[in-house]
Amino acid sequence: METLDAVVIGAGQAGLSAAYHLQRRGITNAVVLDAEDGPGGAWRHRWDSLTMATVNGIRELPGMPVVEAADSEPSNIAVPAYFADFEDRFGIEVRRPVRVTLVEDDPSWVAPDGEAPDGEAADGGVLGRPLLVHSVGGDGERLPVLRTRAVLNATGTWTRPFRPAYPGAASFRGRQLHTADYVSADEFTGQRVAVIGGGISALGHLQEIAEVGETFWYTRRQPDFQDRPFTEEEGREAVAGVWERVRAGLPVRSVVSATGLSWTPALREAQRRGILERRPMFTEITPEGVIEADGTLRELDVLLWATGFRHELRHLRPLALHSDQGGIVIDGTAASVDPRIHLLGYGPSASTIGANRAGRAAVNRLVKDLCPALDRER
Ligand code: FAD
């Protein structure tokens, strides 16, 4: 069985940052696995109209100049090309398409004599205990199991679109889709479309679809718009708020949900045209549409759920990382209950800048935890 010091799962911004820092710290007995067919992480799947001008700001990968692309270039082309250059430049070999299905303790492992039994050591006795990583290839065929001392998990959120349960949802006769399925507004020409959600994606969908169809915007509460771009200080405060929830073991919220939204000229124009008239959340979905808060039946052709994503962590279930409150407590990037597992791009690091930092922090901690001899040499 292939035995490694670290397995990086996911080759988006977070996984590539980790791979870069592993290389720099001389941890070469490591592999990067990614479920995609090619470079780019989740950026490969963003919709065409999310261009380099309309993204929220993409930070460069470590050691690379920032993405150079025309404003009009779709981010689903520019960013994957940039990631491909990065992998080439630093010789980062990503095994793909490889989807990790399960990470578990190695059941065959026997603690060496004299080692502290589980629960007595500061790390709960887990650090020396190997993990097994199970995965499948592009055709779903099982791949050889890997054994590793640590997992740097960087699997993002794109594969876990979140859609809240609403009474009557299954009865709706029109089309329902999530941001993750959105391709372009052209599909909605002449249609009555409900956009549900109060984040940046919802605003983008509304502006585009209003050009070709009739839109209705539903959110649970009035989004918090601010008149100027966010300052670095406000960004730090938002991240600190996300950290508070993580430390308390609560389910994480996105950093954007903590910062709120800033007016842009395009949003002001949308507001002037009445596109951003928010309606309170409907109470029920019917075959024809939705029952609005005041009891009116709104007939609709499409329900577009821009209701966010959850972290893709299903393959880590056997390790029981979640607290009773439903979140995972992390210390830096390491799961507090199991410091062999690092979560990158998770909670406070779920942005391109956060992902960069998490990759570096995870590798620093890994060197400390697993390779004290290696650390002394540097
Ligand atoms: P991803 O880019 O999602 O990469 C995760 C990788 O892991 C993927 O390649 C995936 O295939 C792979 N993977 C998943 N599960 C498995 C598995 N089981 N086995 C193997 N591989 C697996 N942030 C910004 O800073 N600026 C922005 O403008 C911005 N815009 C955004 C727009 C949208 C619509 C969304 C959803 C997010 C946006 N973000 C933005 C957030 C940002 O994209 C991410 O937080 C950031 O890119 C970090 O990416 P990542 O590496 O964590 O994940």
Textual characterization of the structure:
The chain folds into two domains: 3-158 and 309-371, FAD/NAD(P)-binding domain, CATH 3.50.50; 175-227 and 263-305, FAD/NAD(P)-binding domain, CATH 3.50.50. The protein is 24% helix and 21% strand. It is built from eight helices and 21 strands. Helix 1 packs parallel to helix 7 (352-370). Flavin-adenine dinucleotide (FAD) binds next to helix 1, strand 5 and helix 7. Residues 5-45 form the FAD dependent oxidoreductase domain. InterPro entries: Auxin_biosynth/cation_transpt, FAD-dep_OxRdtase, FAD/NAD-bd_sf, FAD/NAD-binding_dom. Residues 148-345 form the FAD/NAD(P)-binding domain.
In CATH's first tier, which class of the largest domain applies? Answer: Alpha Beta
Count of beta strands: 21
Low-confidence stretches: none
Each distinct ligand: flavin-adenine dinucleotide
What is the mean pLDDT? 91
The coarse silhouette is globular
Q: Write out the strand line-up for the largest beta sheet, numbering strands in chain order.
A: 4-3-2-8-21-20-19
CATH architecture level-2 label of the largest domain = 3-Layer(bba) Sandwich
Order of helices and strands: EEHEHEEEEEEEHEEHHEHEEEEEEEEHH
Head-to-tail CA distance between termini: 30 Å
Q: How helical, in percent, are the residues?
A: 10-25%
What's the number of structural domains? Answer: 2
Q: What is the CATH superfamily of the largest domain? A: FAD/NAD(P)-binding domain
Structural class: alpha/beta
Number of continuous helical runs: 8
CATH fold naming of the largest domain: FAD/NAD(P)-binding domain
Question: Hey, roughly how much beta strand do the residues contain?
Answer: 15-25%
Mind telling me the C-alpha Rg?
22 Å
Largest sheet: 7 strands, mixed
